[in-house]
Specification:
CATH superfamily: NADH Oxidase
Strand order of the largest sheet: 1-2-5
Distance between the termini: 47 Å
CATH topology: NADH Oxidase
Strand content: 5-15%
Structural class: alpha+beta
Largest sheet: 3 strands, antiparallel
CATH architecture: 3-Layer(aba) Sandwich
Order of helices and strands: HHEHHHEEEHHEH
Length: 223
């Protein structure tokens, strides 16, 4: 009979109400400075930092603790350029017909287009892969659960960790993304979920002057 996992004491921290309010406010102010960046410096980022960012992402909750994710970390300049070429090929198709006129109009304020220069320039690229199922060494398959939800949460942790390290990123989802699986030679049970460049913002980098929705627009309290 398979043994069940043992349980250990929870070792989380708790705070007095005043400190809790202060910490939550400071964290919001810190995260509210996070922005999606499209202009990157080629300044290097230590691998140890990237390792720690991925470890943080892997601490996310997942369905039945299956951890249905793989983080493909790309530094090789030739491979990055190949992925850029393939991504831009798909994006040209999107902008020239796949995307609706309304969608393109909504994107105009961000200055985005089919050119994805950041894939070449950023020192690191992380492609997050989702695993719909696992395959053991004998070739046996086992189910994963709530895969999209689990990987989405992990990506949130990942973005937060990138910001916490003083770095910047951008969520890029060229669609369809099957070309990434082929370029990285990934197995059939892995599908691309998100591509994120990691690095420093370029000198003089600017971002759109936009506001986030107010709390009253996004939260409904049932007291």
């Amino acid at each position: 009979m398979e043994e069940k996992n043992t349980f250990i004491p929870y070792q989380g921290e708790s705070f007095e109400e005043k400190e809790m309010i202060s910490r939550s406010e400071r964290y919001f102010e810190f995260m509210n400075k996070r922005r999606s960046i499209r202009d990157y410096s080629d300044k290097d980022v230590p691998k140890e930092v990237v390792d720690n960012i991925i470890r943080t992402a892997s601490s996310a909750p997942s369905g039945a603790h299956k951890q249905p994710w793989v983080f493909c970390v790309i530094r090789n300049s030739e491979l990055k350029h190949r992925i850029r070429e393939l991504a831009e090929e798909e994006e040209r198709k999107n902008y020239s017909g796949r995307m609706s006129e309304r969608w393109i109009e909504d994107l105009e304020q961000f200055g985005t287009n089919e050119v994805k220069e950041f894939i070449d320039i950023a020192p690191w690229i992380i492609v997050v892969m989702k695993k719909s199922y696992d395959i053991d060494e004998a070739g046996n398959k086992s189910n994963n659960y709530y895969v999209n939800e689990s990987v989405g949460i992990a990506c949130g942790f990942l973005i937060s960790a990138i910001h916490n390290a003083g770095l910047v990123t951008l969520t890029h989802t060229p669609s369809p993304m099957n070309f990434i699986s082929k370029a990285l030679n990934r197995p059939e049970n892995e599908k691309p979920y998100l591509l994120l460049p990691i690095g420093y913002a370029a000198t003089g980098c600017t971002v759109p002057d936009i506001d986030r929705k107010a709390l009253k627009e996004i939260a409904i309290y049932y007291s």
